Fold this sequence. Notes:
Elements: E1 18-22, H1 29-39, E2 44-49, E3 52-58, H2 78-82, E4 100-102, H3 105-115
Antiparallel strand pairs: 1-3, 2-3, 2-4
Helix pairs in contact: 1-3
Amino acid sequence: MNASNKCSFCPGTKCCSYITEALGPMRSKADFEHLLWQVLHEGVEAYKDSDGWYLLIHTRCSHLKKNGSCGIYDSRPAICREYENSWCEYDAPAEEGFMLHFRNYEQLLKYCKKRFKTWGKP
């Protein structure tokens, strides 16, 4: 197995089944109010790693074939072309690098109440 054929060994082609979006600094109650709204949506989670806060959106690429190959390989977007899989989720789950991970509203709300002592108070 090497980088050129590694994806064919990955069950579910993990990196093609979600997207992440950097959130920037999360400091204020307003920042977390907005994040709470986002994680209310199906397939949306949030995490913090050493690089910062991110949305994690579970959604398969619409061009991912049943066998895990790319249906638009020759014309795929630059981000796909630049993806380096020498170390990827086949090697270790991304979650191992998460400092915080919120899979739903309830988990994030609990964190907000702990982080902001005045959360929910007028």
